[in-house]
Amino acid sequence: MAEPQSLEALGAFAEAAQDLVTAGLERSLGRNFACADVCNQAAEKALQAVNLAREGHRAPYNHDLAALGAALGTPPEIIAALADLSRYHPETFYAHTAPELADDVVTPEEVVTCMAAAKQVLRWARAIVMAA
To answer: Looking at the whole model, is its pTM more than 0.90?
Structure first.
């Protein structure tokens, strides 16, 4: 039988994967910022899943995904993907952009980049969570 933290890690990873599906839906609706934000959330949940698998608990919340990733010892290419996604956390994004302009400010090209970055993070996390 799986350990409780392994089950919790799998649950967190499943939430991250579902968020990636939601991001795709937002993208198809032309809601560019919503897509980027959900990609950010997917990556954060994947990082939490890794922390659960390794440590048995969630890491303290830190919306700087690169810092959270660095604390987990992620590879440099994952840190780069996380840094890109961190720009789309609402607190960070709305500090410089009015909410009503968000979907116009985030370009379709940025959305493609966000989706690719989130997928990269989830692929990395999957191997760790599934081995726990």
So the answer is: yes
